Amino acid sequence: MQEPIVRMHQLRFAHLIDPVLDDFSWEWPAGQHLAILGGNGCGKTTLAGLITDQLRPNRGEIHYANHLSPNEIYLVSFDQHRQLMEHDRRFDDSENRADAFDMGTTVHQAILQDKPEDTRFTELSKRLGIDHILDQGIRFISTGESRKTLLARALLSEPAALILDNPLEGLDKNAQQEMRQLMDELVASPLPLLLLVKDADDIPDALDDVQIMDAGKIIRHCSSAEAKQSQQQRPHFSKPLPIKRGDNWPADQALIELNDVSVNFRGKQVLSNINWQLLPHQHCCISGPNGAGKSTLLGLLCGENDKAWGQQVKLFGKARGSGESIWQIKEKFGLLNTSLQLNHLKRIKVIDVIASGLFDSVGLYNNYGDAQRQQLLAWLDAFDLLHEREQRFDRLSFGQQRMILLARAMVKSPPILILDEPCIGLDGEQKARLLGAVDHIAAQGDTRILFVSHRSEDIPDCINQFLELVPSEAGGYTAKIEER
Is 117 helix (H, G, I), strand (E, B) or coil? Predict the structure, then answer.
């Protein structure tokens, strides 16, 4: 009988003083494919960190198969994505500039890591559908393309075993289908695979060993079919939210109006002849393939992208470039996106992260008064995170961080709330709570929702307008609008 790839005996790992794993014994049998299903904070990511020697246990033993090093077990995760972006951030002041002088690390370089290029690299790039972006900088590609880049790098390293942490999150429908096919191929291959997921529907049907994890314990073993059958719909968020009543905008006057808006980056057409308006009663879902320009479109609205200047972009009845400052634009929007979570707000206290939303700053550089503090505490209480108020933001789970960023985006009760793929990283329960909160925001206040999502099941009920970015004959992507 072959020795297990990894065997853990009576492990304890504590985050500060709270144990994530305690008296934890587990093994990964040789040559086996496993899936671990569990919500945020259950211990999946901690387990992956211990397996790959990125974390060290406080107590207990970890044994590896003969001649196997933990460096030979490759992990593909959101944290890797964050590290990849951080490593290249010294160039990010050129991210939205047409005259950017340095692309930074290219996809080609990120995959090869100084290895010589060979036929495996060429074949793998084509198989993952990233051969056309190899010369692009990693800061200029989409979340889904970044995931494929990391997976290509992992497979090219010829690992002894592979760990995928929520590999479908952030991918558009086509990319999800491609990734599912790739996971099916991995399950059929001899390369041992450990799949960490929050949603049972993300587990390949052929993967028969599913372990359910909760509160740092493996509580059940089952097949993927059994896991999918037993996954229940979670209750939606229902707590009152501390939202202030806002404007009385005329019902027939658009808050957002774009006429024949086009965007070109470094000679590449991204958006082409976008025509769109958002009326006060509307909440819009924005969708489209990875790289279609969804984030670019949002940047035009909230002042993050200067390509709106000189074009027919009207916000709240005023043309962009008519004398308003970027801060006057930003005060109208609340924003939640993956970049904010991955690249910023690391060592800041949770309550200060929310407070930064009052001032539209990344980090807190202003003082706030007692009345504002009560407002911050009310949002924390609404999201059941009041006890985390003095904790460092980067000490929270990924899902908890997302809820804090939703509170940050809403703390000033903005006229428009932009949610750029907000369900990425959330487990079923937290996703339901967030979507319920978004619906409650739409119903309770005067905030309109712009919601970016790849998954139809992740769209809140309040959405009544759909903007899909589709290929344009003129190049790039244009807008297809539907009302509901």
Answer: coil
pTM for the full model? Answer: 0.70
Map residue 184 onto helix, strand or coil.
helix
- The number of residues in the chain equals 484
Sign of the CA dihedral running 87, 266, 174, 185? negative
From CA 50, how far away is CA 8, in angstroms rounded? 9
d(CA 225, CA 258): 47
Q: How far apart are CA 352 and CA 364, in angstroms?
A: 6
- Which regions of 248-347 does DSSP assign to beta strands (E)? 256-265, 268-278, 284-287, 312-315, 318-319, 333-336
- Tens-of-pLDDT digits for all 484 residues of the chain? 689 999 999 999 987 777 889 999 999 999 999 999 988 778 898 999 999 999 999 999 999 998 899 999 999 987 777 777 777 765 555 544 445 446 788 889 888 887 888 888 888 888 888 899 898 888 778 777 888 889 899 988 889 999 999 888 767 777 788 888 889 999 999 999 999 998 888 999 889 899 999 889 999 899 888 888 776 554 455 667 888 776 678 888 999 999 999 988 877 888 999 999 999 999 999 998 877 888 889 888 887 767 666 688 888 888 877 777 778 888 889 999 877 777 666 788 999 999 988 887 776 777 888 888 999 999 999 888 999 999 998 888 777 888 899 999 999 989 999 999 898 877 777 788 888 889 888 887 789 999 998 777 789 989 999 999 999 988 889 999 999 8
Cα(121)–Cα(141) distance, integer angstroms: 19
DSSP state of 303: T
At CA 27, angle to CA 26 and CA 30, rounded to 5?
A: 170
Report which of 86, 103, 92, 91 is spatially closest to residue 268, judged by C-alpha positions. Answer: 103
- Quickly tell me which residue has 């924390």 as its tokens: 380
